[in-house]
Write a structure and sequence with these properties.
Elements (H helix, E strand, L loop, with lengths): L2 H8 L7 H10 L11 H12 L4 H5 L2 H11 L3 H8 L13 E2 L10 E2 L21 E5 L6 H10 L4 E5 L10 E5 L12 E5 L4 H7 L2 E4 L3 H15 L8 H10 L1 H4 L4 H15 L9 H18 L5 H22 L8 E2 H7 L2 H4 L4 H9 L7 H8 L6 H10 L3 E3 L4 E4 L2 H16 L3 H9 L4 H13 L4 H6 L8 H19 L6 H14 L24 H18 L21 H12 L6 H17 L9 H11 L4 H5 L3 H4 L2 H5 L3 H14 L24 H13 L11 H9 L9 H7 L2 H7 L11 H6 L1 H4 L3 H7 L4 H5 L7 H10 L8 H16 L5 H14 L8
Parallel strand pairs: 3-6, 3-7, 4-5, 5-6
Antiparallel strand pairs: 1-2, 8-10, 9-10
Length: about 850
């Protein structure tokens, strides 16, 4: 019998079952609203507690402890003493523990003992390296979690707000709400916010980082959640990970840490065995029904109608937030603000009492019970909708006044489906959403995703708009123009006639300022969720005008934004290209678009006469390589940010470009590789094309530049050359070399006749079976290398190497320097007490018997 059953049995009268205790607890007026559950679910939790499982669940809920103690007829200390025998440790301080609200049955996070979940950038948790760091972290990225973790450990102060008042001389982590305060312009600070105020960041010298892409951390996050969830629950980590990686919801950047944690919690709660074929919408509806059923069972009269219609109501609220509010859907709101979002058709509920009274006054066959049945299908009214969502913990308090949608994954699912519904409606409606200060880029991002995969409905819809005085209609036209133009860079086929009409509409609408490229009437602030920067608009205009001009015989789009048809490029072209460059390497990261943009700009370079821009240097270098005229200056001047895009841009010609660049590098007498397309940290693929004759100097230059050559990129011809001349590989690259060397080449290098002068613990580990038995052969061939070889023997091989040396007949014939190297190896192993130090001591003892003491007399 467990501790909880003992307390239940000692109650007078006894509590007969966990189910009885669960029902009594849920009916208790002081039972915490945050622990709403079905009696069966709570009974399962109580059963785990009785078996000393998930005790953190109880430790995190002092209100639940008080209710259980009252129902069991004992004091709270008695309950705690039973749960934690002998009170060897107190119930953890709630201030150091953080509950994962979106995963109800997960073990809470101990801020002093536990590591943060995967998905939070490693730079964030190292204040000593902050300087001035800005973390672009949308809602759900773990901002509050990181701030509390840092504060609990005394690593930094944590503030939520503008950061106006920060203690001096202490690292500060600021979760920014609103506009930044000048007090943030200090050192030892990390600011986390959904967007980056570009001018402020530049003015104060901040370094900007993003969270890793979801696919990089989801496998580790699922493992992390598995370890925090009940071992006997419904969580199947392999199945959950497969479903998460195929879900659109977690494939997006925004809030994926919070979304991932919430969906893992959902899989544990609902069961992960039946995920096949289920969409996020299916899970949302099932989750909402369960939450509202629990609320109805707890006495919420407002939950009955919502139980059947909750997801549709949530979509309606999200759509209202997109079209009628300046604040994004996920932002907390007051209850009055939530009431304002309830659509008109749901605001007024029926007055059931009035209907019953009226029926008594007229001759009718309708019975009062029929009215009650019908009333269950009628919207309950705005106030009761909001109250019902609160009772079901869909709207949860974030402070004394405001409520927010929870969990994160549900909020994002509703927003995504609301946007899809909105984009299927009139452009005037989603044009209004594009005018929202904070909602514009969310809608623009989904519109971009549609057009980038060839969904052209929006293109035909905006062709019918004609009211240039309506900012919503203009915003719709400009958004479709922007996304359609960028889609051309991805190779998406768009109807030429529609594209021509769109060009004419946009050209009529844009604003031309003296000496500047045309600007959209409805601009947007830069945002990582969508191509919203003005540079993306200019790039789209270049793409559309090129296509329209080509399809209409070369003259239709001639003019202000078609410079490749003019005899001379317009004066604003440098400004336009600067803006395009800032967009390509700004907040919205789109490598495929960058490659398409470089190809477009190369066509522009070939068709016009204008000074070479940084973005055109890759195309210029490729053309020079093909003609045999590439100089290393052409290579060195390519913007380092463009280098990673060269494989997509150059395609099959990448080998021509890289081989030509290596020859140019050799002709220039081997200058630094750092920052060029030959820099292995920027473009590892360039080393696949290094000429064999240049390989040795390239390795020497990489060592001088402290760069790591990508040995895994080398070809068989390269390895043949290295096996013939192993000395070309310097000691700085030894470990990397031995990790990557093909097995047959490594075996050849370790033959008796060709021992390379390399020192590498990686070589020892990988070729242990070849090295240890042949130590005497190596020592005979290269006794001067004994110190280098033995100095990198891994601890795990100490015993085997010591025994091989002890058995070698060469010990008595080796020169004194080699013997000393062996003695140093044994001395070091004993001093550090490696696991096999006794074998090393035996070797040392044997050597000391044979060493001639006269060697050391002066």
């Amino acid at each position: 019998m467990g501790w909880l059953r003992e307390l239940m049995a000692s109650r007078d009268p006894p509590v007969r079952s966990f189910g009885s205790l669960a029902r009594a607890a849920l009916d208790h007026p002081s039972w915490p609203e945050s622990v709403s559950a079905q009696p069966r679910s709570l009974a399962a939790v109580l059963s785990k507690l009785d078996r000393d499982q998930e005790l953190e669940w109880l430790a995190d809920r002092p209100d639940a402890q008080r209710v259980l103690a009252e129902l069991l007829g004992c004091s709270v200390p008695d309950l705690q003493h039973s749960a934690w025998p002998g009170r060897a440790r107190a119930v953890e301080d709630p201030a150091r523990r953080l509950r994962l609200e979106d995963a109800r049955f997960a073990r809470s996070l101990d801020l002093l003992e536990d590591a943060l979940p995967p998905g939070i950038p490693p730079e964030v948790v190292r204040p000593e390296g902050w300087g001035r760091l800005w973390w672009r972290a949308p809602s759900g990225s773990g901002r509050t979690l990181a701030g509390r973790w840092l504060a609990a450990r005394g690593l930094a102060v944590f503030e939520q707000g503008s950061g106006a008042e920060l203690p001096p001389r202490r690292p500060a982590f600021v979760e920014l709400e609103g506009e930044p305060h000048r007090a943030l312009g200090r050192d030892a600070i990390c600011v986390a916010s959904a967007s980056v105020p570009r001018e402020f960041v530049r003015a104060h010298g901040f370094r900007v980082i993003d969270s890793p892409a979801p696919r990089q951390f989801l496998p580790a996050l699922v493992d992390w959640m598995r370890d925090r969830l009940p071992a006997d629950g419904h969580f199947d980590s392999e199945r959950v990970l497969t479903w998460l990686l195929s879900s659109e919801l977690v494939g997006e950047r925004e809030g994926t840490l919070g979304i991932g944690i919430g969906l893992c919690g959902l899989m544990d709660e609902l069961g992960s065995s039946d995920l096949t074929g289920r969409s996020v919408e299916d899970l949302s509806r099932r989750f909402l029904r369960q939450r509202l059923s629990a609320a109805a069972d707890s006495g919420s009269a407002d939950a009955a109608w919502l139980r059947r219609n909750a997801y549709d109501v949530l979509l309606a609220l999200a759509r209202s937030a997109l079209t009628d509010s300046d604040d994004p859907w996920h932002m907390p709101r007051t209850e009055d603000e939530w009431l304002e979002l309830v659509p008109e058709e749901l605001r007024q509920g029926a007055d059931v009492d009035w209907l019953r009274l009226s029926l008594r006054q007229i001759d009718t066959t309708i019975r009062p019970s029929d009215v009650d049945k019908a009333a269950r299908r009628i919207p309950p009214g705005a106030f009761r909708i909001v109250r019902g969502l609160r009772a079901a913990r869909i709207l949860v308090p974030v402070d004394d006044e405001r409520l927010a949608v929870a969990p994160h994954w549900l909020a994002r699912a509703a927003e995504r489906d609301a946007i899809r519904g909105l984009l299927g409606a009139s452009p005037f409606e989603w044009g209004e959403a594009l005018l929202g200060r904070r909602t514009a880029t969310v809608v623009l991002g989904d519109l971009w995703r549609d057009l980038s995969i060839g969904r052209e409905r929006a293109l035909s819809d905006v062709s019918e708009l004609s009211d240039d005085d309506s900012p919503a209609q203009v915003a719709a036209v400009e958004a479709v123009f922007r996304c359609a133009g960028l889609s051309l860079l991805l190779g998406v086929e768009i109807d030429g006639e529609q594209l021509g009409e769109l060009w004419d509409d946009q050209k009529r609408l844009w604003i031309e300022l003296d000496g500047e490229p045309p600007r959209p009437r409805v601009g947007h602030t830069d945002d990582p969720r969508a191509p919203s920067d003005v540079g993306w608009f200019w790039l789209a205009a270049l793409a559309v005008s090129e296509r329209v001009s080509r399809e209409s015989g070369g003259r239709r789009a001639a003019g202000a934004l078609n410079p490749w048809l003019d005899d001379e490029a317009p004066s604003f072209l440098p400004m336009l290209l600067d803006g395009v460059r800032d967009a390509l390497y700004g907040a919205f990261d789109a490598p495929e678009l960058r490659a398409g943009a470089l190809r477009l700009l190369e066509r522009l370079r070939q068709a016009t006469r204008h000074p070479l821009h940084d973005l055109e240097r890759p195309g210029h270098a490729l053309a020079a390589a093909k003609s045999g005229a590439l100089g290393f200056d052409d290579v060195a001047r390519i913007d380092a940010r463009c280098v990673a895009d060269l494989p997509r841009f150059a395609g099959t010609d990448l080998g021509v470009l890289c081989a030509s660049a290596w020859h140019a590098w050799q002709r220039a007498e081997s200058p630094t590789l750092t920052g060029t397309l030959l820099d292995p940290s920027l473009l590892p693929a360039s080393w696949e094309h290094v000429p064999v004759a240049v390989l040795g100097p390239a390795l020497a230059r990489a060592a001088a530049d402290q760069l790591s050559p990508p040995f895994d990129r080398l070809t068989p011809e390269h390895w043949t050359a290295l096996s013939a001349a192993p000395a070309k590989v310097g000691s700085a690259h030894a470990d990397a070399f031995w990790r990557a060397v093909p097995a047959d080449v490594g075996a050849e290098l370790l033959s008796a006749e060709r021992v390379p002068a390399l020192s590498s613990s990686a070589g020892w580990r990988r070729f242990e079976e070849l090295l240890a038995p042949k130590l005497d052969v190596f020592l005979r061939a290269r006794p001067e290398a004994a110190g280098a070889w033995l100095g990198c023997v891994p601890d795990a091989l100490t015993e085997r190497v010591a025994q091989a040396l002890s058995a070698s007949p060469l010990l008595s014939t080796l020169p004194g320097s080699a013997v000393d190297a062996i003695r140093r190896f044994a001395l070091d192993a004993v001093r550090r007490r490696v696991p096999a130090f006794r074998a090393a001591y035996a070797l040392m003892s044997e050597l000391e018997k044979s060493v001639d003491p006269r060697r050391f007399r002066h």
